[in-house]
Amino acid sequence: MAQARRIFACRLCAATDPHEIIDFGAVPLGNNLQETALSARAAARYPLELNRCGQCGHFQLGHAVAPEELYATNYTYLSGIGPSFIRHFDAYADWVVATCDVPKDALVVDVGSNDGTCLKAFRARGFRVCGVDPAALPAKIANESGIDTINAFFDSAVVGRIKAKYGAADFVTSHNVLAHVDDLAATFADICELLKPDGRFCFEVGYFREVLKNDLFDTIYHEHLDYHHAAPLVRHLTAVGFAIEDIGVNPVQGGSLRLLCRKTATRKVSASAQAFLAAERDSILNDANYLKNWRHEIDARMARFKAMLRQRAGEKRSIAGFGAPTKATLLMQMADIGSEDIAYVAEDNVLKAGRYLPGTGVPILLTSHLLSNPPDVLVIFAWNFADDIIGKIRGKLAKPVEVVIPLPEAKTVQL
User: End of a domain among 224, 258, 288?
Assistant: First the structure.
C-alpha cells in the first residue's frame, strides 16, 4: 500500500477529534489511468476512509495523497465533455446576473476552472474572466480557447498575481472543487482577500446529504478530501468574514449544495439560510444509526449489482461500460468486478482513450468503437450523465442493447 499523509486535524475547525464513518481499505487513485493493462493492475493503492469531526461535524478523508500526484500530471477530467454541465453553467451565469447585481465590467474568477467551460458563460455575458487550475491539460485547453488561466494551485501568491494584473475580484466562483482542497481554511481566507469589499463568493460542492440518502458512495475518492454539508461551512465562512445570503440544492453531479456569500463585516446569515440549516439538522446527516450501518447497505447494493452482471454473463451476453470517471475505480472494487466482467469502457474524452483503468486494467476505447461494436449489455459508470449518454447513443447502435445504471440502485433501460 502506497504512502499517504494521515490527517488528524479538521480542515475547517482544526479540532483533533475525528470519528471514523467508513473505511474502504486500500484503493487506487481513480484518475491514475495507465498505458498498459499490466501497469494498471499494479497501480499504487492508498488508504481511503471517511471521518467526521467531533466538534464541527465536517466529513473528510483521514489520509491525503500529495496533490501533485493527483492533479499536476495525469488529470484528464474535462468540464466541457458533458452537455448537461455546459447547460448548467449557462443557467448559473444567468442566475448570477439576475441575483447578484454584478457590475458590467466585473472581474469573475473561477477557482478550479478546469478547461474554462464555466468562465466561457461569463465571458459571453461581457465580464472579464480569469481562471485558476493546477491541472496542466485542462488549463492548456482553457488558455488556447482564450480564457486566461493560471496553471497553479490557488493560494495567496496566485491572489497577488490576479490583483496585480486585474485588480480585486467582484465575483469569485467555484464548482465541484472545494471538495479537493487540503487546506480549506487558507483557501477561504485567500478568496476573501481576493474579493473587493461587498464582493460575492458563490460555490457549488457535492452535497453529502444526497450521497448518504442515495448511497452514492463512489463519489468518495482520494481527490475528494472533503464531503460538505451546510452547517460546518456556514460556521467557518462567517468566522472568515462572509455573510451568508443564500443556500440551495440542485441536481448536478448527483446533488450539489450552492452557497452564496458576501464579503462584509456584518457576517449575517439570512433567514432563508437559517431555515435551510434547521432542516439539515433533522436530516440523515445526523442519523447515527444510518451512518453506523452505511457500509452494510453499500455492500448489499453492490452484491445485487454484481449478481445482475453475473446473470447476464451466464447467459453468454457481452458486457462493456460507458465512462471512465474517477468514481468507477471504487465502484468496481466494491462490486468486485474487473476485466473479466467488463470487456472495455467507452469514452468521449480523447485524453482517456487508449489507457487502462487503475486496479482492473479494463481498456478505455473511444465511443466510436462502441457504436460500431455494441455489446449486449452496457454499464454506465458515469451514472450522473446517464441521460446525456443514453440520448447520445440511442438509435445509433447496430443491435438492441440493455443499459445498466448502477447507482443509486441498479436499474436497466432497453435501447
Answer: 288
